[in-house]
Amino acid sequence: MSTQMIIRMDPELKNKLDRLARTGGKSTSQMVRELIEAYIEEHDISSYIDNLWGRVGKKLKSKGVASADVNKAIKVVRKGRR
User: Fold this and answer.
1) What is the extent of the structural domain holding 65?
2) How are the residues of the chain apportioned to helix, strand and coil, as percentages rounded to the nearest 5?
3) Total tally of structural domains belonging to the chain
4) Which of 17, 42, 50, 52 is 20 to 30 A from 67 via CA?
5) Is 33 exposed, middle or buried (0-12, 13-18, 19+ CB in 10 A)?
6) 66 φ, ψ (degrees, to nearest 5)
7) CA dist., res. 39 & res. 45, Å (int)
8) 42 in any annotated domain
9) How far apart are CA 65 and CA 74, in angstroms?
10) 3-state SS, residue 42
């Protein structure tokens, strides 16, 4: 379910946004949603970390490293810090 958000902005800025959205074949609302989603994705550290772990996992799997090997390595490193 969607919810509505009302914002205030300078009329000149709104006109520029409207033009850019139309140029891209999008509605102003769609453009704003995409901009907000991109901002959150860029600034949300948990999403960044999840994405990083996903990439690391794929890379390790492609090299033949199993999950058990990763867990074992983590335990060894953690023991060494004590």
Assistant:
1) 11-80
2) 75, 0, 25
3) 1
4) 42
5) middle
6) -95, 160
7) 12
8) yes
9) 13
10) helix
Summarised one tens digit per residue, pLDDT across range 18-51 is: 999 999 999 999 999 999 999 988 888 887 888 8
The per-residue pLDDT for range 44-82, each reduced to its tens digit, is 888 788 888 888 888 888 999 888 888 888 788 888 876
Residue 4 inside a domain? The answer is: no
| Verdict on whether the full-model pTM lies above 0.90 | no
CA distance to 53, 65, 66, 67, 76, per residue, from 79 (Å): 22, 21, 20, 19, 5
Single-letter code of the amino acid located at 36? I
- CB of 58 within 8 A of CB of 65? no
- Residue 17 within any structural domain of the chain: yes
